[in-house]
Amino acid sequence: MDEEKFLEQYENGKRYFLRRQIKEKFLEQYENGERDFSGIDLRKCYFYDALLMDINLSGANLENAFIEGHIGNTNLSGANLKKASLRHIYFIGTNLSYANLSGANLICADFTNSDLTGANLSGANLDETKFIGSDLTNANLTDIKIPRDPILHYTNRPDGKLIINSSRGLDAKKLLSRYAAGERNFEKVILHGVDLSGAELRDVNLFCAHFSNCNLSNATLSGNWDAAKFINCDFRGARLHFCELNSASFIYVDMREATICADTTCTNFIEVNFQGAELRCSGESLAFFHNITLKDGFFLQGSSNYPVRPNKNIEKLL
To answer: Which domains, and CATH codes, for the chain?
Structure first.
């Protein structure tokens, strides 16, 4: 249904539309640059591989919705997500204050840098859900399901007290001292707000590691970084030499002037600035790029498997 038809039917008094029609209209408006969807009714809508960035969904009704993908820097304050299926979703830097997430399926969801103050999470499934740099002050966590413990680090509990993960969380001093002592296996570590600018970390195993709000500018890095997550990190001038980045994710990352020589099989680059960077990437499967700034400063809006201007030869840009 096109916009003219939709508005004509609405003006004629029609108020019931198929969920599919509403979802399609929403995505069409989003693709056309609309960002204010406050109060929208998206109940029972299905979003697969969603990329909803920098939008206003405050007060939206997403009850029983199914969403997989990335929601970043978005306002969902007061939204209704009751019994929504949100497995493995990324809520990055998202405002979920006073949102209703009761009974929601949040298995392995990631709430890095998100505000959940006063949110209702009663009865939600928090199986290995990530709360890193999050705020759960005054959140309702009654009757939550936790077959496996949630992952919390630098997060405020409902009572306002700060949680620091002593088993997986590392600061710069601990990481560098262990590296200097010869340790190279840092699998699944969590680094939040850590300054590693200018550091040398060669031949390290950082499989499934989590970096958020970290400074890695001018660092020299190599080794196994498969499935690692880099959220809101600074890689300006960094050198990633012979890194394994299979299925790694870079979200809201500054890579200006960086040099990247890596296996980027199924790597995600979302909201990344590559201005002045040198990319020498290879892999068995294509990487994924969304809303990136290219080497020459051109902003490539939308999704692509190649970091190039439309209809331009790749060799001219890389």
So the answer is: 1-34 (no CATH), 35-165 (2.160.20), 172-316 (2.160.20.80)
- Could you tell me the end-to-end alpha-carbon distance of the chain, in angstroms, rounded to an integer? 41
CB atoms within 10 A of CB 34: 12
What's the pTM? Answer: 0.89
**Rounded CA separation 27/316 (Å):** 33
Tell me which residue has tokens 């966590």: 141
User: Closest Cα to residue 129, out of 91, 97, 163?
Assistant: 91
pLDDT below 70 — which residues of the chain?
A: 1-20, 311-318
Could you read off the pLDDT of 157-166 as tens digits, one per residue? 999 999 999 8
Range list of H helices, the chain? 3-11, 19-31, 172-180
Of 68, 32, 75, give the one whose Cα is nearest residue 53.
75
